[in-house]
């Protein structure tokens, strides 16, 4: 599944991504998510008034925008939370301009959490202080607005492979609480992982199901390094529509 996905896409047709049911979300969680949505809207509004957007904030100051390059240079780290992110693009056509990749580095991962036992592994994974978990990717349109979320295979980001359960537990600790390269963008990204927490959980749970099924279908290969399996699942999103659903 290497083409740009749209809507609700699964790399394995027989394994659809679970639909998030608003009624299953507690009132406390809804309140937290709606609070996050206000931060998102405020950040977008403030940037828009000056003719900016969250994507422009991370690519400003660079001479041109080149596929596969990380923006900003050297990525963005938070030394307290150990969260990390970068923005880049590598898919032509469609609605996507590029996407944010979000991570948690080793120092932000609980000491009792270990990488998955995966006997089929054919490549070395980052270990120890170099361990890193990919949380989720956020797809952006040409106007700097979010249009989708997706989970991906291990080889895509070169991450350490943690179970979906352990990765989901890391989501609450993702926070970029400083002003480089942009205070509004960092606030926005931190809040996006809060607002769309149920969808991210669904994508990560689905990711492990897809990888397991793929390994079963291709037992002679290491599914985590299979270049024909890139995006395990994609969900289209709309901040406005999700907020309306939460408020209903």
Protein model, in words:
This protein is α+β, with helices and mostly antiparallel strands. It has one domain (about 10-15, about 25-245). About 35% of the residues lie in helices and about 20% in strands. The chain contains seven helices and seven strands; from the N terminus they run βααβββββααααβα. It has a seven-stranded antiparallel beta sheet with strand order 1-7-6-5-4-3-2. Helix 1 packs antiparallel against helix 5 and helix 4 (about 165-170) runs antiparallel to helix 6. It is globular. The chain starts with 7 loop residues before the first strand and ends with a helix. The mean pLDDT is about 95.
What's the alpha carbon Rg, rounded to whole Å? 17 Å
Low-pLDDT stretches: none
* Beta-strand percentage range: 15-25%
Q: Largest sheet, described in full?
A: 7 strands, antiparallel
Question: In angstroms, what separates the terminal alpha carbons?
Answer: 35 Å
Order of helices and strands: EHHEEEEEHHHHEH
- The domain tally reads 1
Envelope shape: globular
> For the largest beta sheet, what order do the strands appear in spatially?
1-7-6-5-4-3-2
Structural class: alpha+beta
β-strand number: 7
Mean pLDDT: 94
InterPro entries: DUF6969 (IPR054242)
Domain DUF6969: 36-237
Protein name: DUF6969 domain-containing protein
Pfam families: DUF6969
């Amino acid at each position: 599944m290497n083409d740009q996905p749209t809507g609700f896409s699964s790399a394995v047709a027989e394994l659809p991504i679970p639909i998030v049911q608003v009624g299953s979300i507690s009132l406390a969680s809804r309140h937290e998510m709606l609070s996050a949505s206000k931060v998102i809207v405020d950040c977008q509004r403030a940037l828009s008034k000056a003719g900016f957007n969250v994507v422009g904030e991370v690519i400003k100051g660079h001479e041109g925008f080149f596929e596969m390059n990380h923006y900003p240079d050297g990525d963005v780290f938070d030394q307290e939370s150990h969260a990390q992110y970068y923005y880049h693009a590598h898919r032509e056509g469609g609605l996507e301009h590029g996407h944010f990749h979000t991570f948690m580095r080793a120092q932000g991962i609980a000491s009792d959490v270990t990488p998955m036992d995966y006997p089929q592994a054919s490549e070395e994974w980052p270990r120890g202080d170099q361990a890193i978990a990919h949380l989720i990717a956020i797809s952006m349109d040409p106007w700097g607005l979010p249009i989708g979320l997706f989970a991906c295979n291990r080889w895509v980001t070169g991450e350490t492979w943690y179970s979906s359960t352990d990765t989901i537990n890391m989501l609450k600790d993702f926070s970029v609480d400083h002003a480089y390269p942009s205070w509004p963008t960092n606030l926005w990204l931190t809040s996006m992982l809060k607002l769309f927490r149920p969808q991210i959980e669904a994508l990560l749970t689905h990711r492990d199901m897809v990888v397991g099924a793929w390994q079963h279908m291709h037992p002679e290969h290491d599914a985590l390094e299979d270049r024909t399996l890139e995006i395990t699942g994609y969900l289209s999103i709309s901040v406005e529509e999700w907020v309306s659903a939460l408020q209903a």
